[in-house]
Amino acid sequence: MTRSVFRNMPMWFILVAIAVFVLLTVNFFYLNTAVNMIALTILNVANAIRLWKAERSVAIVLLIAGVACGLYLIKYLLN
Fold first, then answer.
1. Mean pLDDT of 36-50
2. Distance between CA atoms of 44 and 55, rounded to whole angstroms?
3. Residue 47 needs a FRET pair 20 to 30 A away by CA distance; which of 16, 30, 39, 56 works?
4. Which of 34, 37, 38 is nearest to 77 (CA)?
5. pLDDT at 5
6. pTM: predicted TM-score of the whole model, two decimal places
7. Membrane-crossing residues (predicted)?
């Protein structure tokens, strides 16, 4: 079961996902909203890049959500 799930994912996406999950786990103890937004934006954009060839419309929606999260993050950090 797990082999078939990981077989369809590229190695770079698995490494990015592991890095984001480690970042979110460490942030669980510090509770910083900006770190959560950065981690989820990175994962969102990586997922959009991964889906670009197979499901382009979903990838475009994910990229738009990533840009919106990035803009909100910039607004949050400037205040």
1. 86
2. 14
3. 30
4. 34
5. 63
6. 0.74
7. 12-30, 59-78
Q: What's the rounded Cα separation, in Å, for the pair 35 and 18?
A: 15
- Strands (DSSP E) found in 1-79: none
How far apart are the C-alpha atoms of 71 and 68, rounded to whole Å?
Answer: 5
Distance CA 51, CA 53 (A): 6
pLDDT, one tens digit per residue, over 59-76 is 888 889 888 888 888 888
The H or E element containing residue 40 is helix 33-51
CB 41 within 8 Å of CB 73: yes
Chain CA centroid to CA 38, Å: 8
Tell me: pLDDT of 34 over 90. no
